[in-house]
Amino acid sequence: MDRIENAQMNSLGTRKLYYEDVHQTDFTAVVMECVPDKEEGYYRIVLDASAFFPEEGGQSADKGTLNGQEVLDVSIKQGILYHKAACELPAGTQVTGHVDWNRRFDFMQQHSGEHMISGLLHSHFGLENVGFHLSDREVTLDMNGEVSLEQLRLIEQEANTYVWKNLPVNINWPTAEELTSLNYRSKLALTENVRIVEIPGVDLCACCAPHVDTTGQIGLIKIVNVQSHRGGVRINILCGNRALADYTEKQDSVWAISSLLSAKQPEVAGAVARAKEDARLQKERANALQAELLNVQMDALPSPEKVRHVLLFVGELDAIALRNAVNTLTGKYSGYCGIFAGDDTNGYRFIVGSASCNCQELADRMRRELSAKGGGSAPMIQGNVAVTADTLQTMWVSL
User: Fold this and answer.
1) How many Cβ atoms from other residues are within 10 Å of residue 394's Cβ?
2) What CATH number should be reported for the domain whose range is 1-98?
3) Which strands sit side by side in the sheet containing 203-206, from one edge to the other?
4) What 3-state class would DSSP assign to 9?
5) Are the C-beta atoms of 186 and 207 separated by less than 8 Å?
6) What CATH number belongs to 102-254?
7) Cα–Cα distance between 309 and 307 in angstroms, integer?
8) Cβ(221)–Cβ(239) below 8 Å
9) Which end of the chain is more exposed for a tag (fewer CB within 10 A), N or C?
10) One fold for both 102-254 and 290-396?
11) Under CATH, which number does the domain 290-396 receive?
12) Which residues pair with 44 in a beta bridge?
């Protein structure tokens, strides 16, 4: 894997064009090495120079192409960039690379926004960022202490205020001596080739990733979630176009809910709460009526002197009511007392009890003959079965 160390490359490995010009997306380079990975079925390509930022510092790698073929991933080891591709690019050939700018800029927005949130949490509350992840799907930052929702909203407001000020995002490579006088966040153990990203008055942090030129390019910064995590908090943020897309998606949902409930958009939460309470009350009324009907059905059953096993079919009813009804029946009938809630199309939930018969034996039979699911004990079983009422009645007659 490390044969490239013998190639004619500088002491820092691959020339990293993204550090020279973060906006450069097209470049030419010479292939220094192309090694096949037979197990994975791809090639690992090393160039003398590359504009591809690798997976590093919690951030996923850039996407793009080399000579028109997709770059599947980019990794870094000892300063050398390894480009993962499906096709061979022979050593010594010159290739043309292209970096997906839309994705690059999106990542720049997210990462710079994360610096602002982390920097402000550090300066206001002394919190340290102990984890960071940036991918196509999410941006998370882990802080080593608790922070309230109210405090986060104040941090979010301040961060966006600095966005609107369009502050410069400065990149510096201080000497080892200069580093000793800087009060910066992250990677404090490094003593050489430390890249410092500065947002004046907001953050000073060691970082290897591409960033925007000014805070105005970040666009909106929005904290979308926070949860406890390993003694601190994990915060999810969205910046720029991601924040706009998220707002649009949620706005569409609010519009839809507003229309369905005939409520003004700012009042949808209250309207949903009222609709939920109405639904609960309606369900209670329906259950009460269903219970009354169940009592009527039980009263209409043949007397215990005439039959031993009884079977009832009901509509949707809560489990407590079903269990109570079965308990009532087992106090009157000596055999299996079964209540099945549902219909032939969607199947049935059932509870079967008995004061003298072993319900587990019935459960075994229902599993064998009807593919029923469920279980229980000798006095009572419960579960689900997808057969017709006629099929169940036939079984009950045979008991």
Assistant:
1) 11
2) 2.40.30.130
3) 170-172, 196-199, 203-206
4) coil
5) yes
6) 3.30.980.10
7) 6
8) yes
9) N
10) no
11) 3.10.310.40
12) 35, 84
DSSP element (H, E) containing 367: helix 359-370
Instruction: Find, among 238, 207, 206, 211, the residue nearest to 222 by Cα.
Output: 238
Please choose, from the candidates 202, 173, 215, 218, the residue with its C-alpha nearest in 3D space to the C-alpha of residue 19: 173
Q: What gap in Å lies between CA 199 and CA 215, rounded to an integer?
A: 8
Do residues 117 and 104 touch, judged by C-beta distance below 8 A? no
Binning the chain into helix, strand and coil, the percentages to the nearest 5 are: 35, 30, 35
Do residues 369 and 344 lie in contact, with contact meaning Cβ atoms separated by under 8 Å?
no
- Give CA–CA dist 129/137, Å, rounded: 20
- CB of 140 closer than 8 Å to CB of 234: yes
Q: Which H or E run includes 75?
A: strand 69-77
How many residues belong to the chain?
A: 399
Strands 310-314 and 337-343: parallel
> Per-residue pLDDT for the chain (399 aa), expressed as one digit of tens each?
344 443 445 556 999 999 999 999 999 999 999 999 877 889 999 999 999 999 999 999 999 999 999 999 999 999 999 999 999 999 999 999 999 999 999 999 999 999 999 999 999 999 999 999 999 989 999 999 999 999 999 999 999 999 999 999 999 999 988 998 999 987 677 767 899 999 999 999 999 999 999 999 999 999 999 999 999 999 999 999 999 999 999 999 999 999 999 999 999 999 999 999 999 999 889 878 888 888 899 999 999 999 999 999 998 778 888 899 999 999 999 999 999 999 999 999 999 999 999 999 999 999 999 999 999 999 999 999 999 999 999 999 999
Domain boundaries, the chain: 1-98, 102-254, 290-396
Question: How many other CB atoms are found less than 10 A from the CB of residue 45?
Answer: 27
Residue with tokens 């960071």: 132
* CB-facing half-sphere around the CA of 291: CA atoms within 13 A: 15
State the pairing for strand pair 15-16/49-50: parallel
